[in-house]
Specification:
The complex is a heterodimer of chains A (379) and B (348). Chain A is mainly α. Helix content of chain A is 70%, strand content 0%. In chain B, the strands form four sheets. Chain B has a six-stranded parallel sheet with strand order 2-1-3-4-5-13, with helices on both faces. The chains are: A mainly alpha (379), B alpha/beta (348). At the A-B interface, helix 3, helix 4, helix 14 and helix 15 of A face helix 1 and helix 3 of B.
């Protein structure tokens, strides 16, 4: 028992207790971080429609999706990485590196756009694999590794092109990056690959053994290994995915702005991480869901868009988004308290736990109860 | 214990709601100028001009935009200034898109990248927004008019002349620039190299470093320059952020007075360093005049007085009459040299 108490996981507040599953499905879905973000997104959007001049214009959604597309794309693999308790700070540098690589391959080697794009994505995957190798197999902390590669990949990108920019891209392709799915609709073509990837990532994270492994690693990597999750391989492939998709975002970025430069997408990594955290993913790993993350990205996009229409400048927008982020972190605790209060009811009965449900306190039951009780008192 | 938890729950909920309400209210204050919704230019009565500098919090653009504001107040119109925090190439695009959505009459922009914002500007022009670039141009087919502060040759030559005079026309110099991709800095540096090669064979340019128009980065790069090149005799910094940071470093280092510093700076930033001898003389134009001229140029485009073709001329208030040159360029004038004798006459 005392050995159990001293384990670090016992102190982690974000871990689910069995109380999470003792509530009906609708309550679990509605009283959650993800739903709070979705509701907030709906409220902000509806409010802006009515109160912000020109927000209901035909261009708003179109520009919103064009602007947020790279963040939406990169947020998919980054969500999974953060759920494992790791982080990838090099994603924006990979965007820049892929952008430059594509420009150089197209301009200097005369490759066609699709081929240059494919090679750039391949380069991104290699860059991700390098991160993954150091984190998963060498066992270095991902924060340190990816701060290093953030500088390394950015340096390579700037070094390849120097002070110049490649701007000669065929109009056919730059137009495609900005094209609408149907003429006159506010939905740009970039949403198609995003939606395909989104479906893929939802299946991978929420409906596959691999995805369960991702959560398990975030809860307790040691325990995950003992239950048969290949921790190193899982992490490795997540970093490869992050690299490849960041590079794809880099290709999109290059074509959208028609400009391949070493400093493209500088600082984008923080926007992606902010959106992922706003969407309810715990920075300690182990919890989070993709619907929340997508809502988080869109919420930041809608808030920025509405505030720009009101002629607010970037620093004011940053302040509001920063406040939102802090509030959303606070709200995790808030929601935990609220749902604890709700399920406790007027009698103040504590939530059910598996160890107690059958009142059978066997050897396994003891340890389970011990762990969860500890985490409750810690709160 | 439980009571305390409940109390903090409640106060957190109150904070959350208050925060949201605050964020929501922030937008609602200037809903009055919504006339632009259904396309701009419905009449000459509501001229709205938005200034989009490279980045905010830069005293140079504060001054230029203040000049623009002064002009807009003179001819009666709505002035707005928006912009990103950092001068990265794509950061301006959302603001250009927003101007298109708002249907403002004109957008006055200093470009961070000649190409990256091009499509966005053309989309805005499709929405009947007149586009005037100032300070830093885009490709000529993305804007109606470019208000040039001084000719590239004039600026490059002025800086080379200043540094040559200050170091006795011989020795090692280095350049501390803005970002590695900054349009006009790179053009000046190219011409400065040509001018050095042609007229000053005894001066060697040993290094060009980039402070990214960030004060601390520029400060650190200056320190690194002096370390790496012990024989350095002068630094040219063709950016206002760079020269101020370099002056701050030099004034407290042993190199003060022995390493010359010149470039493009503003009088208010460098006054202290001119007085204490760190800087002898530096060049610039008046950014206030630049913004002022850009606003009048935008107004002339909105009114249809000019279309931006070669030979068009328009009135620019206190500055007199200007004529559009080739490629839709309007030239403000020659750079101006500031030194200990005249610096106190300026306040920007």
């Amino acid at each position: 028992m005392s050995a159990m108490l001293s384990r670090p996981t016992a102190e982690r507040p974000a871990g689910p207790t069995y109380a999470d599953h003792s509530r009906p499905l609708w309550r679990r879905a509605l009283v959650s971080r993800e739903f709070a973000v979705i509701a907030l997104l709906a409220v902000v959007f509806a409010w802006s429609q009515g109160n912000v001049d020109n927000f209901d214009g035909p261009l708003t959604l179109y520009y919103l999706f064009l602007d947020t597309a790279p963040i939406l794309l990169i947020a998919l693999p980054l969500t999974m990485i953060i759920i494992t308790g790791e982080i990838d700070l090099s994603v924006a540098s990979v965007v820049g590196l892929a952008s430059v690589a594509m420009g150089v391959l197209h301009q200097d080697l005369g490759l066609s756009i699709p081929l240059a794009a494919l090679l750039a994505i391949g380069l991104g995957a290699v860059a991700g694999a390098f991160n993954g190798l150091l984190v998963a197999y060498v066992g270095l902390p991902s924060l340190a590794v990816t701060i290093g590669t953030l500088a390394l990949y950015r340096g390579l990108a700037v070094g390849l092109l120097g002070t110049t920019a490649v701007t000669e891209f065929p109009e056919r392709w730059t137009d495609l990056a900005k094209a609408r799915i149907v003429d006159g609709s506010p939905y740009p073509v970039i949403l198609i690959p995003f939606l395909v990837l989104l479906v893929g990532f939802v299946l991978l994270l929420h409906f596959s053994p691999f995805g369960r492994g991702v959560y398990e690693i975030g809860q307790n990597a040691e325990a995950a290994r003992f239950t048969g999750v290949n921790v190193a391989r899982t992490k490795f492939w997540l970093f490869v995915l992050a690299g490849a998709i960041s590079a794809f975002a880099g290709v999109y970025y290059t074509l959208r702005y028609g400009s391949a430069r070493g400093d493209n997408a500088t600082g984008l990594e923080l926007q992606v991480i902010a959106a992922v955290l706003l969407g309810g993913v715990s920075i300690f790993g182990g919890r989070g869901a993709l619907h929340g993350v997508v809502a988080g990205v869109l919420l930041i996009g809608v808030v920025s868009s509405a505030m720009r229409l009101e002629n607010h400048t970037a620093n004011v927008i940053s302040i509001v988004i920063g406040v939102l982020l802090v509030l959303s972190v606070i709200s995790t605790r808030l929601l935990a308290w609220v749902s604890a209060l709700v399920s406790r009811g007027p009698g103040g009965r504590p939530p059910l736990r598996i160890g107690r449900r059958r009142a059978a306190v066997g050897t396994n039951g003891t340890s389970t109860t011990g762990t969860t009780t500890t985490s409750t008192t810690e709160r | 214990m439980r009571f305390q938890i409940r109390r903090s729950t409640r106060s957190a909920a109150v904070a959350l709601v208050a925060g949201l309400a605050l964020a929501a209210c922030g937008g609602g204050d200037d809903g009055g100028d919504g006339g632009a919704t259904n396309g701009a230019g419905s009449g000459g009565d509501a001229v709205s001009i938005t200034f989009l500098p490279k980045n905010l919090g830069n005293p140079y653009f504060d001054t230029s935009d203040a000049g623009g504001k002064k002009a807009i107040e003179e001819f009666g119109g709505t002035y707005a200034e928006v912009g990103p925090d950092a001068g990265s190439p794509d950061a301006q695009v959302p603001f250009i898109n927003t101007a298109a959505q708002q249907g403002v009459s004109a957008l006055v922009v200093s470009a961070n990248d000649p190409t990256a914002i091009c499509d966005a500007l053309n989309e805005a022009r499709d929405a009947d927004v007149k586009v005037v670039t100032f300070d830093s141009d885009t490709n000529a087919d993305c804007r109606d008019l470019y208000v040039n502060q001084a000719s590239t040759e004039g600026i490059a030559k002025a800086q080379v002349d200043l540094i040559a005079e200050q170091i006795g026309d011989a020795g090692e110099i280095a350049i501390l620039s803005a970002s590695a991709n900054a349009t006009n800095q790179n053009a000046w540096i190219e011409l400065m190299k040509e001018e050095l090669g042609a007229s000053h064979p005894n001066i060697t340019l040993v290094d060009t470093v980039y402070g990214d128009d960030d004060d601390q980065t520029s400060f650190d790069k200056t320190a690194a320059l002096l370390q790496a090149h012990p024989n350095l005799k002068g630094i040219v910094s063709p950016t206002t952020v760079g020269i101020a940071a370099a002056a701050r470093y030099l004034s407290t280092s042993a190199a003060k007075g022995t390493v010359a510093l010149t470039g493009l700076g503003t009088p208010n930033q460098l006054r202290e360093y001119v007085r204490n001898g760190t800087v002898t003389a530096f060049a610039l134009w008046n950014p206030g005049d630049l913004g002022y001229l850009a606003a009048y140029a935008a107004k002339a485009l909105i009114d249809g007085t000019i279309t931006g073709k070669d030979g068009d001329s328009f009135d620019a208030g206190d500055l007199g009459t200007f004529t559009v040159g080739a490629d839709g360029e309007v030239l403000l004038g020659d750079p101006f040299t500031f030194d200990a004798d005249n610096i106190d006459q300026f306040d920007f």
